[in-house]
Q: What sequence folds into this?
């Protein structure tokens, strides 16, 4: 359990870095590239991101679970079978991508720049290290890449004409995934590259998991392709950029799931006490909901001033998009616990898949109907409704396996605290003459109010703090 706590800390620190870095790069890129180029970037990038999930073949789920449950004797064999599927999928995707881009796509040059990005995903075996509990290895590698990426953006990107450089930098950094292969002999001393194995069993499991992962990309990546086609690059910029901060916070809250899923998978394979699993799930749900609501309230209260300060006055039109898309901060991680932390750890792939598929259909229909007519506003409405639908289905589908009365104890208090904090925060006038200081003061007020209400309503936060104080 000590190792699990250490892994959570490492991963949380990395996720904090992911939140901080957009604060450094996005204002610069938004001002240097402009709305049109940013929209083209989002459009071009959306398709390779979509394809990357096909290349991975569900390894972040199936791979992590299988490796976590592997013994010393079958570790090498299982790894080769898993990566063999990823390699085959990657080759098919990359060849198909090149053919389609050369024959049919506009922005051919920009799309071809994304090939190193796709190759990087073929080389990505971070799932192996996560399954082995070596989260530190993954975090350190990703941290170095992120910092290098930021530095090169400031060095080489200076105008709208540098869009191709910006795309190239973001693409080639993924080739650094080869670093994971340098340490494979440490984890598997007898490892030899030799013949790559294929497994029908893992193929079936991977396809089962990949289908929902790809379906999810229809409303988290491919939706940008649709909005770019129907509403234009400027509206796509408003739609995509307002999700930057929200999804960064989602990654932070999801870091606990990344660490706990292999632990719960191992507990399940060892037939651990069901109460032990439910208790672990309860802690995860409580603090994910609390932190999600805290971040959501802070983002919503600061929406108007944050857009002008962060992106510039030219982007003020996307304030409403930012306000409503902030709801994703609580919706996605909370629903993700039921799917990625519980259902997936138990191999309930069908339960994991259904919400993604329904969400994909809803998003596609919704965006084709509303994006062309309402632009970014229509897209934002659809993404929030889609994530609500997916979250609700995730909860409904595991209802027969969990004790909701136990798991949801006190959750009404957290939602009440969120409502009160948002209501009060939106009506406190803060005008210090500086947007930055306005944001800092307003965030502190929201945070203090939220914590005071948590303690005042005698929630588990107060009880846990008392336990920590007693030692």
A:
């Amino acid at each position: 359990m000590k190792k699990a706590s250490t892994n959570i800390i490492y991963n949380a620190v990395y996720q904090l870095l992911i939140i901080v870095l957009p604060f450094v790069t996005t204002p610069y890129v938004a001002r240097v590239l402009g709305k049109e180029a940013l929209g083209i970037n989002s459009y071009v990038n959306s398709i390779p991101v979509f394809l990357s999930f096909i290349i991975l073949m569900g390894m972040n789920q199936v791979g992590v679970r299988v490796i976590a449950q592997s013994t010393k004797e079958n570790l090498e064999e299982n790894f080769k079978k898993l990566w063999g599927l990823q390699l085959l999928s990657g080759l098919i995707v990359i060849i198909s991508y090149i053919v389609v881009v050369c024959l049919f796509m506009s922005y051919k040059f920009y799309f071809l720049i994304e090939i190193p990005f796709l190759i990087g995903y073929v080389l990505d075996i971070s799932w192996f290290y996560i399954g082995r509990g070596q989260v530190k290895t993954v975090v350190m590698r990703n941290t170095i890449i992120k910092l290098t990426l930021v530095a090169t953006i400031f060095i080489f990107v200076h105008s709208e004409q540098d869009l191709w450089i910006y795309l190239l930098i973001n693409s080639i950094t993924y080739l650094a995934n080869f670093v994971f292969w340098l340490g494979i002999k440490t984890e598997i001393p007898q490892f030899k590259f030799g013949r790559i194995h294929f497994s029908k069993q893992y193929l079936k499991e991977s396809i089962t998991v990949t289908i929902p992962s790809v379906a999810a990309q229809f409303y988290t990546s491919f939706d940008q392709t649709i909005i770019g086609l129907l509403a234009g690059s400027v509206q796509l910029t408003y739609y995509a950029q307002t999700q930057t901060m929200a999804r960064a916070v989602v990654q932070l809250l999801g870091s606990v799931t990344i660490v706990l899923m292999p632990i719960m998978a191992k507990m399940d394979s060892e037939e651990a006490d069901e109460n032990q699993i439910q208790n672990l799930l309860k802690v995860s749900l409580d603090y994910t909901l609390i932190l999600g609501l805290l971040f959501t309230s802070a983002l919503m209260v600061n929406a108007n001033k944050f857009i002008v300060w962060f992106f510039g006055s030219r982007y003020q039109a996307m304030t409403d998009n930012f306000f409503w898309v902030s709801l994703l901060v609580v919706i996605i991680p909370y629903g993700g616990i039921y799917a990625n932390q519980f259902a997936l750890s138990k191999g309930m792939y069908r339960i994991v898949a259904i919400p993604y598929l329904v969400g994909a259909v809803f998003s596609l229909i919704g965006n084709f109907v509303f994006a062309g007519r309402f632009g970014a506003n229509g897209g934002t409405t659809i993404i929030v409704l889609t994530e609500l639908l997916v979250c609700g289905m995730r909860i409904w589908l595991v209802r027969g396996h969990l004790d909701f009365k136990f798991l949801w104890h006190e959750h009404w208090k957290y939602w009440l605290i969120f409502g009160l904090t948002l209501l009060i925060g939106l009506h406190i006038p803060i005008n210090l003459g500086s947007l930055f200081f306005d944001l800092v003061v307003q965030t502190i007020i929201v945070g203090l109010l939220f914590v005071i209400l948590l303690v005042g309503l005698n929630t588990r936060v107060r009880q846990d703090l008392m336990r920590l104080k007693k030692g």
